[in-house]
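From the pipeline queue, job 12 of 40. The input is one protein chain; the requested action is below.

Action: predict structure.
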Amino acid sequence: MINEILGKTFYYNRVLEYLIAVGIIIGSFVFLRIIICIILKRLKKFAEKTTTSLDDFIIMIIHKFVIPMLYLGSIYLGLKYLTFPEYITKILNVLTLSLVTIFIIRMVISIFEYVLRNFWLKNESLEAVSGTIKVLLPAIRIVVWSVGVVFLLSNLGFDISAMIAGLGISGVAIALASQAIFKDIFNYFVILFDKPFVAGDYVVVGDFMGTIEHIGLKSTRITSLSGEQIIMSNSDMAESRMRNYKRMSTRRISFKIGVTYETGLDKLKEIPQLIEQIISSVEDAKFDRSHFSQYGDFSLNFEIVYYVLSRDYATYMDVQQEINYKLKDEFDKRGIEFAYPTQTLFVSKVDGMENEEIKK
C-alpha cells in the first residue's frame, strides 16, 4: 500500500522523490540552523569583548545576507533533485540567480557604506559625513547595481558585448553634449576626495567670501557675510585659488600706529616695550614684535605684529579692540598723543614784510 502511494507519479516525479526533496530542504535547514547558531553564538561572545564595530557589522552581514542565501541554496538544492519541464527549470534557475545577485549587490553596498562611515570619513564631522554619504552613496549604488545587472544578464546568456557597444556609442554622444555637467561632477569627486574645504569652512574665492553651506554634484553654495547666497560651479571652486580661514590655527596681525612729532625721544623709546606689555596681557594674543618703523608725513610710525591664538574672526576683533582700548588708556596716562593730519603755520619777517610758510 505504502509502496503504491510512494510510487505514484505526479507532474513528472514520484511521491517518494517529492518526499526526498522536502527531506533535503528540511535537513539542510536544520543543519544550517545548528551551524549558524554555534558560529553566531561564538561571534557574539567575541563581539562583547571588543570595542570595535567591525565584528558587529560582520554579524549583521551574516544575519541579513549570508543566512538568507544559504537557506535559498538549500531550497534550490532540494528542488534540483526533482525533474521538471525545461521551462520550469529555466524559471527556477533565473529566479535563484536573480535573488542571489540581489543579495550580493545589497551586501556589497552595505560594505561600501560601512567603509565610508567608519574608515574613510571617520575623522570628519557628523555634518560632513552625512552630506558625503548622501551624495556619494547613490553613485556607488548605481555602479554596483549596474555591474550586478551586467553579471546577471551575462550568466543568463545575453550578448553583453553588443549591449555595451551600443551603450558606449550613446554614452559618447551624451558626454559630448554634457561636457560642462560631467566636468562639474568630476570636480565634485575631486573636492570630495582631496577635501580642500568642507561644509562650514569660511573661504575666500576670488572676489567672493563666505561660509560653505552645501557641496552638491553640480555646484557649491556659499553664504556671504552680508547674508546672500553665492552659487559657484564645482569646476570654478576646484580650479580657483582659495583661502580657507577655517583651517588656520592662528591668525597673524600686523597694524600701525602713529604719534605726533612733538613726542620726546624718551617716550618714543618706551612705546615698543609698553605695546609688548599691553598685548601680552590680553587673552588669546601672543606678542611678536614692535618697532619705530618710519617717519611719516605727519606722524612717527610704529609697526606692531602679534598673533591671535584662534581662527575665529570674532575672537580676533575682540582681541584687537581690547588692545586698542589699552593703548588709548596708557598713552593718555603718559601724555603721548596719537597723530592725525595737521597743518602748521610758520610766520616770519623778511625785510619788514611778513612771510608765511605753511608746513603740512
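Job complete. Residues 2-123+133-155 form one domain.
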